[in-house]
């Protein structure tokens, strides 16, 4: 089994409703998102999935979030845009874009900074 991953970044604001902390105020992060996939076989070139393909698909998902207030997006109007919920959101959008791919999406890791993050896997 082979595991591959790519990392991309985007910038966005958010606030956590009902949190009762400074994070309840609008603030922003330079989010770091890593997508992990696995595959059992390699193609004739020796690739499980071209990194460029995985990166392009991840960028498509993150493009809808970049430079936005996440609370104003359709996905987070009712749900707090926590790192946990954001990881699940990216996972669910990315798996759609990888349908028919030779690699299967395992998990998505979302980091608010270098020291804190959350991952989602079904």
Structural notes for this entry:
The chain has 122 residues and is an alpha+beta fold. It is built from 2 helices and 5 strands, in the order E-E-H-E-H-E-E. It has a 5-stranded mixed β-sheet. The longest helix has 15 residues, at 83-97.
Helix-and-strand structural type: alpha+beta
Instruction: Please mark out the parts with pLDDT under 50 across 5 or more consecutive residues, or reply none.
Output: none
- CATH superfamily placement: 6-pyruvoyl tetrahydropterin synthase/QueD
Give the termini separation: 19 Å
CATH classification class: Alpha Beta
Strand order in space, largest sheet: 3-1-2-4-5
The profile of the biggest β sheet is: 5 strands, mixed
Integer average pLDDT: 96
**Oligomeric state of shown chains:** single chain
Tally of separate domains: 1
Q: How would the global form be characterised?
A: elongated
Which short descriptors sum up this protein?
about 120 residues, alpha+beta, Tetrahydropterin Synthase, Chain A, five-stranded mixed sheet
Task: Set down the secondary structure blueprint.
Elements: E1 2-14, E2 27-39, H1 51-63, E3 68-69, H2 83-97, E4 104-113, E5 116-120
Parallel strand pairs: 1-3
Antiparallel strand pairs: 1-2, 2-4, 4-5
């Amino acid at each position: 089994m082979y595991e591959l991953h790519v990392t991309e970044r985007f910038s966005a604001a958010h606030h956590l409703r009902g949190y009762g902390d400074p994070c309840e105020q609008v603030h922003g992060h330079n989010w770091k998102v890593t997508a992990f996939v696995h595959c059992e076989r390699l193609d004739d070139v020796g690739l499980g999935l071209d990194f460029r393909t995985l990166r392009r698909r991840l960028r498509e998902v993150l493009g809808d979030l970049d430079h936005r207030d996440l609370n104003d997006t359709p996905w987070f109007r009712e749900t707090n845009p926590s790192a946990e919920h954001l990881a699940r959101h990216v996972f669910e959008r990315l798996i759609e874009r990888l349908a028919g791919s030779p690699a299967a999406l395992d998990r998505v890791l979302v980091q608010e900074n270098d020291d804190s993050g959350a991952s989602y896997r079904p």
